[in-house]
Every structure is written in structure tokens, then in C-alpha cells.
């Protein structure tokens, strides 16, 4: 490969060199992937089929489950296929597609979690205005804004990353393609544009985080004023699943991108990659259903009957 040309393929980081360990990796990822498919698939089906769940909160949850399904499907199947076929390769176009979809879906997830925080804020702090502020048209617009913002985010980052001349190698130190891993192959100073975009993204990320934090400060203030214990319990039950999902998302993303020099190792990169790409889509359905009686009831009706209940 000449120094002036971009690579035609990239080599992803393998979980193991031994065939037995590769088979173990395949089996573990298959189990996790099937669990994510089942959990998110059940939530999507339950929300779609049960008319009791046709509310803003569950509309946004349905969108989140679709994003979770798509995001884990962007990385895990390719990693499993590589382990099974004993290869590390991913094509240039495949890598670009993986980065585009991952940035799109993860960004949309975060924007949607921000919208969901606003939904919880209105439901608890402005209950009399809930139907006005969170009407079906407003909900569709907010969800579309989250998806659209994620798409724009992905177009900017992917287009800028793959417009860079790449000549510093092709071995990606992660089991999927991600922007920092590709930018390090750049052989020009134009990578500074991507650094600028990453800083802008970090500012947006922080802005959304502050919005979510302030929303929950207001929610907590209102909930603590509720005189009845049952009322407080109901309010907390509405908010805790979302708060748990946000905490999981933010902690894994921050842990993944704030690395100290002592953490720079392939093993650490693999663990971090699994934490923020594989774990949230798998655990989110569990976090949302644990304390949610409405969702549990819908799933109980759905599983034995195996069909939609249109009443």
C-alpha cells in the first residue's frame, strides 16, 4: 500500500487469536444480541399493540427501542461474523457505513433521552398543561427532531472523517469502526476540522446533559412536595427508569472517551467498546420494565397470546 492512497479495507481488533476463544466470543455476543433483540422487540410490539400504552412516554420509549435495536445491529453481527470466519477485515465502505449508522443512532438516542426528560418534567411539574404541550403532533415533531439531529450529526462527522487522506495504516484498535480510530490514520493537518466537530459535539452533549439535570432538579422539588406517600412513589416510578437509562448512557460514553494514559491498551478498548455499544441496548428494556406495571401487564398479555390486542 502506498503512502498516498487510502486503505481499501480496515482490520478490526480481534477478541482472541485462538479459535476456541473466538467461538466463545461468538457465542457470548450471540446470546447478548438475541437478548437485545428479544427485549427491545417485546417493548416495540407491546407499545404498538396495547392501546393503553399509546401515550407520549411509551411513544418515545418505542422510538428508543427501535434505535437500540438498530445500533446494536450495526456492530455486533459484523464482529460475530468475523470471529466465525476467522478474519479481522471490514471494507472501506463498510467501515464508513458503520461509523455513519453508529453516530446517527447513538446521537439520536441521546437527543431522544433529552426529549424524554422534558416529557417527564411536563408530566410532573405541569400536569394541567400536559395534553396541550405533549399532544400527538408535538410528540412526532420532537421525535423527528431527535432522529433528524442524529442524521445531520452523522453526515457531518462521517463526511469530514472520510474526506481526510488516510495513509498511516489500517489496523483499528476496536472491534468496530469509530471516528477517533480512523482520524489517527490521517496524514494531513486537516484532521483538526474533525477535532473542531468533536468539540462542538461535546458542547451539545453537555448542553443536553445540563437540560436533563435541571429537569430532574425541578421534578425532585415537585415530587418532595407531594403530601401522599403513594403519590410520591408513583412519580418516582415514572422517572426512575428514564433516569437509570440516562445514567447508563452518559456513564458509558464518558468512560469510553475520557481515557488516561494508563488505560491505553487493546484490552481496555475492547471492554470500553462493549460497555457503550453493547450494554445499553441490551439493558435498556430491562431497566424500563422492572418498575413499570403498565408495561409488565402489556407484556403478560402479549406473551401467552402471541398476538396484538386491539380493544
TrEMBL record:
Signal sequence residues: none
Subcellular location: Cell membrane
Transmembrane segments: 23-45, 57-76, 96-118, 138-156, 198-223, 235-258, 270-290
Pfam families: 7tm_4 (PF13853)
Key word Aminoacyl-tRNA synthetase present: no
Chief place of localization: membrane
Entries under InterPro entries matching the protein: GPCR_Rhodpsn, GPCR_Rhodpsn_7TM, Olfact_rcpt, Olfactory_GPCR
Membrane topology summary: Multi-pass membrane protein
Keywords: Cell membrane, G-protein coupled receptor, Membrane, Olfaction, Receptor, Sensory transduction, Transducer, Transmembrane, Transmembrane helix
Superkingdom to which the source organism belongs: Eukaryota
Gene3D superfamilies associated with the record: Rhodopsin 7-helix transmembrane proteins (1.20.1070.10)
Residues of the G-protein coupled receptors family 1 profile domain: 39-288
Entry-linked PANTHER family: OLFACTORY RECEPTOR
Name of the protein: Olfactory receptor 14C36-like
Organism: Apteryx mantelli
Amino acid at each position: 500500500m502506498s503512502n498516498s492512497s487510502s486503505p481499501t479495507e480496515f482490520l478490526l481488533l480481534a477478541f482472541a487469536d485462538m479459535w476456541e476463544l473466538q467461538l466463545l466470543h461468538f457465542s457470548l455476543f450471540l446470546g447478548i444480541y438475541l437478548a437485545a433483540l428479544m427485549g427491545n422487540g417485546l417493548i416495540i410490539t407491546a407499545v404498538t399493540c396495547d392501546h393503553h400504552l399509546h401515550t407520549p412516554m411509551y411513544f418515545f420509549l418505542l422510538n428508543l427501542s427501535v434505535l437500540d435495536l438498530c445500533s446494536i445491529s450495526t456492530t455486533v453481527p459484523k464482529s460475530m461474523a468475523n470471529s466465525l470466519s476467522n478474519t479481522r477485515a471490514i471494507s472501506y465502505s463498510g467501515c464508513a457505513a458503520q461509523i455513519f449508522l453508529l453516530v446517527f443512532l447513538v446521537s439520536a438516542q441521546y437527543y431522544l433521552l433529552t426529549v424524554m426528560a422534558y416529557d417527564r418534567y411536563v408530566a410532573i411539574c405541569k400536569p394541567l398543561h400536559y395534553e396541550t404541550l405533549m399532544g400527538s403532533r408535538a410528540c412526532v415533531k420532537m421525535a423527528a427532531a431527535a432522529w433528524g439531529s442524529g442524521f445531520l450529526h452523522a453526515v457531518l462527522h462521517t463526511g469530514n472523517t472520510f474526506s481526510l487522506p488516510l495513509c498511516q495504516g489500517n489496523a483499528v484498535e476496536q472491534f468496530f469502526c469509530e471516528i477517533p480510530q480512523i482520524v489517527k490514520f490521517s496524514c494531513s493537518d486537516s484532521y483538526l476540522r474533525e477535532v473542531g466537530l468533536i468539540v462542538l459535539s461535546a458542547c451539545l452533549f453537555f448542553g443536553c446533559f445540563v437540560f436533563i439535570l435541571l429537569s430532574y432538579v425541578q421534578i425532585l422539588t415537585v415530587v418532595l412536595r407531594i403530601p401522599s406517600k403513594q403519590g410520591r412513589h408513583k412519580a418516582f416510578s415514572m422517572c426512575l427508569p428514564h433516569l437509570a437509562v440516562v445514567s447508563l448512557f452518559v456513564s458509558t460514553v464518558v468512560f469510553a472517551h475520557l481515557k488516561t494514559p494508563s488505560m491505553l491498551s487493546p484490552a481496555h478498548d475492547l471492554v470500553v467498546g462493549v460497555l457503550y455499544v453493547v450494554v445499553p441496548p441490551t439493558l435498556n428494556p430491562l431497566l424500563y420494565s422492572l418498575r413499570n406495571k403498565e408495561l409488565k401487564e402489556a407484556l403478560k398479555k402479549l406473551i401467552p397470546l402471541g398476538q396484538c390486542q386491539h380493544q
